[in-house]
Design a protein that fits this description.
Elements: E1 24-35, H1 38-46, H2 54-67, H3 69-72, E2 81-91, E3 95-106, H4 111-129, E4 137-147, E5 154-155
Antiparallel strand pairs: 1-3, 1-4, 2-3, 4-5
Length: 157
Amino acid sequence: MEDLTHFDEEGRARMVDVSDKAETARVAVAQGKILMKPETLERIRSGLIAKGDVLGVAQVAGIMAAKQTSQLIPMCHPLAITGAKLSFKFVEPGEIDIEASVKVHGKTGVEMEALTAVSVAALTIYDMCKAIDKSMMIKDIYLAEKIGGKSGHYIHG
């Protein structure tokens, strides 16, 4: 268990002590997707969802989620995020790809914040469209890239 830093010597959960770590610039990029019926994708694209601007609301929800990650994931440190953005790409016949990029200048990274942003953005799309398409599927959420920190630069795959 020595590689798992969220456990103490007795195997109990703990928040990692980052007191002695240097503050550095850190970035994390996460990606995911939501699959839906082609008609649902077209209604989102055309702005014909009764609840409003689906991607606009999902973007705000994702940013808010990144800022609140430490309230959701027990061992995450509260961070003063310096930047967060989400982007969406329509993929035919019925897919929206989601990407979140989160930045911080701090002692620990923002991987969980980026992953949470993508997850909540996808859940928001589901929530806003479930009345017309309960078959939507959220898939393939993963860390695409991480920059900064002791472990250096990571690119998925």
